[in-house]
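Entry 12.
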Amino acid sequence: MYALPYILTSWLTPSPKYQWSHFNCDAFEGEVILTGVIDPLHVSTAPFHYYTVGQQSKRAFHYNYTLTTHNTGAHTWKTLSFNGASLFSVTRPDIVQITYNMTNDSNNYFEAGCMHNATHPPTVKPAVCGYGRYNITPYLSFAINELAGGFTRLRAVDKEWRFPSDAPSVVVRFEGPDGKLGDIAIQSAIAQRNHCGTIKVFLPLRNLSLANLVPLGVILEAQETFAQYCTRSIMYSI
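Predicted 3D structure (tokens):
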């Protein structure tokens, strides 16, 4: 006599494939697929996709960022780098790299480099365009200074956002001077079925800013850490 409710529940629950394609994304312009890897011959990636003009139901690939690791003594550094040209010049980001000191859980430093020119020669080096501090605990939070002017604070809604046996899950919002949280800067969504190293995050706008990209690098590092756990668990279970 319990078969009918079970059948109805199963019928009403979207398939994992449908959830991956549609879950909670319609209100966001941008979608980024974060894939953490543990193979030293490869790097973690963050390809960006945006809605095609006139086709709000379909997103197209625009450009990619990668995350690399550099260890110097007692410090661990990660660099999020723009990797290759954008397929659409209108959305090509000025921010070409962000370097993070990921040694501690609090008061970590980051620095961003920008080109400020979508047609720059490949020999031109990026110039510092922003810097700041961020905390992993008690809340994921950021204080961002832009050299062009402007100061931004961001904070996660919940204290818990990274987990030892699950992918990172977080909503990062702008924080006002009074400590109140405002609009979303970046939001994680759902993991890809049978690919535990891959999750989606969403961006509210297609114009990429430090408020979007600085948290994204930290979330990608957390996904990289989880990928090490989940892929090894799968290997050991075989």
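Annotation: Residues 4-20, 234-238 have pLDDT under 50 and may be disordered. The longest helix spans residues 210-237.
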